[in-house]
Amino acid sequence: MDQLGRFIQSDAKGILEKIRLYFTEKLLPHLEDRRKYHQEFASSTSFHGVHNIVQTQSKTRKVLWLFVVMGCLAIVIWQICSRFIYYFSWPTTTTVVVQYVENVKFPAVTFCNLNRFQAHAVSNLKIIFLIWNIVSGVLQKIAMEDKYAQELNDFLLGNQNFSIKEFTRKNGFYLNSSTLLECEFFGKPCYPQDFEHVFTEYGNCFTFNRNDLPARRVSLSGRGLHLLFDVQQEQFTDGPALGYTDAGITFVIHSPEELPRFDGLGLLTSVGMHAQVSIRQLKSIIQEYPWGECKPDIKLQYHKIYSTNGCLQECKAQYIQDRCGCLPFILPGNGTECDLLKFYNCVYPAIYDIEIKGLCTIGTHNSTCPAPCEETDYPTTVTYSSFGGEKAIKYFSAKLKKSPEYIRQNLVRIDIKYHDLSYKITQQQKALTISELLADVGGQLGLFCGASMITIIELLEYIFTNFCWMCIFLLLKAPEMPQWNNLSQNQPTHKEKKGIQEC
């Protein structure tokens, strides 16, 4: 066994010696060859200044060039680090471009009467105003005073089959030849059937130029949509005790693909007034995160295009449907319509939770509804004047067979037109792209070190070669581990030595 062990040990030692010999002769150059390699690299590298350090004979010149090279290298590192820090701060710039076109698409306009219900329908049903406040609270949070709670609760318990949706559709504001006296779009007449019904916080509203209808365009500035409404104050009335004291038409201008949003965006024209509205088209393009706040992969289920208002409505609808098992008719979606008891006992508290707990948030990239990547707005300039002179008042009084006082207290004229045939594009762009970052880095390397991509490859090759030589050198100097293991196995223990001595 001892002879076998010595044979194995000598055989392993021979293999190890052959490996060492191969490394020494084939892979590890001699000391002079390595020195020559370093000398040739320093003399031929495209990294400027290094060959001046190596080739010059003057020590003063060597030190001077060493300081120059190290200084330039330090500046390059500082500049490159600053560019990378700037890039990862995700900077953006905003460009504004005005495009002039031959014709431009006309926006959608949604009109509502400030007096939401017909007087005869609510004369003995004042509670309707409170009920509608609860229903429309899903769009605009309205606080309800506690003094009405008992009265409202009694009505709901006694009228469980009452449908506020059907009541509003039947007894709310309507659009026909008696309320829409004149309608003209770009010189051509339009009619009430050109408007589409929609529910908003103002009850029955009507939208002109919805996305479902053929797109309407204008090819001449100063001409657009001209309307004359009769609000019929004696037929439509709201509750002054609840804060609704105005009479007139409220309207909002929006994209045909989007739903109307009155909260903070609606324009108002009171009775006896003529509103001239000049509009412009503004397209906003926002970068995706992390440069901007939009997420291009977000899609809405019940809207053709993404908008924060549509997303917010779908978020509220989903939460209410999960919590209450029904869906308010004023929100998008397919589900069982909520009755009045559900509105009062479940939907209204759910909206409160959404507002307080921030369950449906908008704005930033990590919110429920981030900013849209593309959005079209219509900034407006509105001027008002009193409707009609004495001759106009007499003309409409004779035409409608109404008194001049009625004309002043009920008629509203609205003109909506483009300021000019152009649209403005506000685009958020990356202030520094990958290609620009590489160009900056390359420019700094070239300016201070005369380096290029070829120089970087030369340096990487030089570092890799020296690293391989270092690994081989360490392997050659490593202890013979197999020999150590064999020696430790062959050495007798202390007890064995003591037993041998006793024998």
Overall description:
The structure is a single chain. With 503 residues, this protein is an alpha+beta fold. Strand 5 and strand 6 form a beta hairpin. The radius of gyration is 41 Å and the shape is elongated. Strands 1, 5, 6, 10, 14, 17, 18 and 19 form an 8-stranded mixed beta sheet that branches. A 5-stranded antiparallel beta sheet has the order 7-8-3-12-13, with no helix packed on it. It has helices at 2-27, 31-44, 50-55, 59-87, 119-122, 127-136, 149-158, 164-171, 308-324, 340-357, 390-400, 404-410, 434-449, 453-477, 481-490, 494-502, and strands at 92-100, 104-105, 108-113, 117-118, 180-185, 188-189, 195-200, 203-208, 217-218, 224-230, 236-237, 248-254, 267-270, 273-285, 362-363, 369-370, 374-377, 380-386, 411-430.
Name the descriptors:
single chain; alpha+beta; 19 strands; 503 residues; elongated
